[in-house]
Amino acid sequence: MKHNFGAGPCILPQEVFQEASKSVVDFNGLSILEVSHRHKDFVAVMDEAIALVKKALNVPEGYSVIFLQGGASLGFLISALNMMRDAKKASYINTGAWSKKAMTEAKKAGFEVIEAASSADKNFNYIPKNVAVDPSSDYLHFTSNNTIFGTQFREIPNSDVPLVCDMSSDIFSREINVADFDLIYAGAQKNMGPAGTTLYIVKDEALGKSTSAFLPTYLDLKTHAEKDSMFNTPPVFPVYASMLNLRHLINNGGVRGAQERNEAKAALLYNEIDSNPLFEATVGEADRSNMNVTFLMTDESRTDEFNALWLENDIVGLKGHRSVGGYRASMYNALPIESVQVLVDLMKHFSSKG
Amino acid sequence: MKHNFGAGPCILPQEVFQEASKSVVDFNGLSILEVSHRHKDFVAVMDEAIALVKKALNVPEGYSVIFLQGGASLGFLISALNMMRDAKKASYINTGAWSKKAMTEAKKAGFEVIEAASSADKNFNYIPKNVAVDPSSDYLHFTSNNTIFGTQFREIPNSDVPLVCDMSSDIFSREINVADFDLIYAGAQKNMGPAGTTLYIVKDEALGKSTSAFLPTYLDLKTHAEKDSMFNTPPVFPVYASMLNLRHLINNGGVRGAQERNEAKAALLYNEIDSNPLFEATVGEADRSNMNVTFLMTDESRTDEFNALWLENDIVGLKGHRSVGGYRASMYNALPIESVQVLVDLMKHFSSKG
Question: Which residue of chain B is at minimal alpha-carbon distance from A168?
């Protein structure tokens, strides 16, 4: 068995792979790939997927759950277009790469974009605390977890304006209070399912209020909320596999259970990084991500040796992003703690050999 | 075995289902659903998918092949935004439903839309022949095949302006000359693969020439052409399954082979409809689709009886669209002629009982 520490698309539960694989050849007598999206069997899948999201996150009344396409990259635009109000000003917290892309699309959508806070001064290795939100902003946007720099918001930022959040890389990994947000969006391919669908959770009151002169049908969340994500052909298989994964989540303690497992995995690995002289974390304790653990070797001359070691021990996807270097252990919901233990044991062993 | 006449998502070859199913549990030691899109194994899949499209359609030099998300519904917008030039006028041939939606998005993109021809006067049961293209139009758009009304262009319309075509429902079903077009787009879920990815074939000269004030990054085809469809996480599994299906197409006589089989299936069914007094085609001979055969019963009192008959004979998806009524037999590439023979035999049998 491989230990998949990849940053995404990423590991999902083996049971999900098994059941999805079966349905590709037999889903009520057809392949799931050849079932019409209008057939009652798939309508039931979509309905269940939406219901499971609501259950897992305890989504209150007055919110719609939507499955779309295009990833967060299209979500940067869709969120901006749908949240545009009279001010046409938007505040963004810049925690690196993904926030920057989100700001670019908001500008292209016609916003005056205000950087309410930034951690650019230290290569995004922390979460900025002093957030100055222009009170006339249409909304405040933040990226809850940064996959590249290994940072994660522990608490939502203080804000008097509506909150919009890109939760692509940590949704379903910990409990959240959906009522704090006007709009949440997330590419599926971390904790929700395979690549190819994007989740939106939007306050119904926020729909139909855009002041954008440009709001084509597909980019208007109202279109999809009103059609229960069936305005056009949805990405059938990615939605189906996400539904299976959400079922698995609910059957294994829900988001609270996942959060406890994720905290245990993170504690195990960060503890090793902090106590092992050969390694150091890139992020201070307060802002560390439980999803993506970024760390460096203190003795670069031993890099090749360590790389060979984890590769020959069936570890996959540990190489750090080029913007940070070193290593990145992504530990999404489906990564078992046993895989983290394998990595920790290798680090201990490697250090003792030195 | 079921005979799947569904309009899409639709039947694909059994071999594709088998291999895709296997890869969901084991693709070089991981599930295809957990492989990073940046891993060389998936980069090879994307490269092969693009190469197979080029091979199947004999795509000339100077064209880019792109796999995106969002279906034709987003394609209506993307095509308009990317093809906008100084005139901001676009001509559309209106052959029903899909053309109308395409026109709506072009208007939302800021175009003056000109209906160059329409078959609305007869509920879209023919392909208009007298196309008057305003020579100052930025392009002429048409829908090569209409799934709802069962019509199909036999020849491309005459035009002195660039041609843009929504080929969602007949791409890869017959030979085309890509050089005739500036832009072709197509949702995957008929002849290319499962739902969840959308194909664009665009003349490189047409990229980067948009005059639209609004051209966000994801909607700009130049973004994706330059990044080989890897600007952001692609829909990994839909692209993978499309690649398998394109391999299967190439190994079975390519598009020419598919076209011959499709013509034989269409001849078999239309011949029965024309010779059986209980049925009548809704479209005149010259404009009939080889993909979606629409027909009515001449004796409506026997509808329930016929419906029971095909249902108990494992035929799936034969019900006509509500805009036309009656029946619709969709016969995409993967539908075997044996399934058509089953339907024809039932029609004969049913008629002889009358």
Answer: B233
Q: What is the pLDDT of residue A353?
A: 82
Looking at residue B206, its pLDDT comes to 98
- CA-based torsion, B197, B203, B208, B211: positive or negative: negative
Q: Do A217 and B108 touch (CB under 8 A)?
A: yes
What ranges make up the beta strands (E) of A83-123?
89-94, 112-118
CA atoms within 13 A on the CB side of A205: 7
Rounded Cα distance, A282 and B119, in Å: 64
Q: Looking at residue B58, what is its pLDDT?
A: 98
CB of A290 closer than 8 Å to CB of A331? yes
Pairs of CB atoms within 8 A across A/B: 195
Cβ–Cβ gap A34/B24 under 8 Å: no
Q: Please report the residues numbered 96 through 135 in chain B whose beta carbons come closer than 8 angstroms to any beta carbon of chain A.
A: 101, 104-105, 108-110
How far is Cα of residue B88 from the mean position of the Cα atoms in its chain? 27
Mean pLDDT of chain B: 97
Pairing of strands B198-203, A292-297: unpaired
Q: Rounded CA gap, A17 and B237, in Å? A: 12
ipTM over the 0.95 cut-off? yes
- Identify the segments of chain B with pLDDT beneath 50: none
Q: Which residues of chain A have pLDDT under 50?
A: none
Q: Which chain A residues in 307-326 lie under 8 Å from chain B, judged by CB atoms?
A: 316-317
The residue among B238, B102, B333, B115 whose CA lies nearest residue A71 is: B238
B28 touches chain A (CB under 8 A): no
Contact A240, A20 (CB under 8 A): yes
Measured in angstroms, the CA of B118 and the nearest CA of chain A are apart by 23
Query: Which long-range contacts does B264-271 make (Cβ < 8 Å, 24+ apart)?
Result: B264/B337, B265/B290, B265/B331, B265/B335, B265/B337, B265/B340, B266/B290, B266/B293, B266/B331, B268/B337, B268/B340, B268/B341, B268/B344, B269/B293, B269/B329, B269/B331, B269/B340, B269/B343, B269/B344
pTM, two decimals, is: 0.98
Q: Which of A9, A31, A241 sits opposite B36 (nearest CB)?
A: A9
* Amino acid at position A227, single letter: K
A189:B22 CB<8 A: no
Largest CA distance in chain B: 64
Question: Which residue of B105, B215, B232 is in closest CB contact with A216?
Answer: B105
- Cβ contact B277:B131 at 8 Å: no
Task: Give residue A354's pLDDT.
Answer: 65
Alpha helices (runs of H) in B156-253, residue ranges in sequence order: 221-226, 236-250
Q: Provide DSSP, A1-13.
A: --EE--SSS----
Among chain B residues, the shortest Cα distance to A81 is held by B216
Question: Best mutation site among A14, A25, A34 for testing chain B: the one with the most B CBs within 10 Å?
Answer: A34
With an 8 Å Cβ cutoff, are B21 and A18 in contact?
no
What is the SS3 assignment for A335?
A: coil
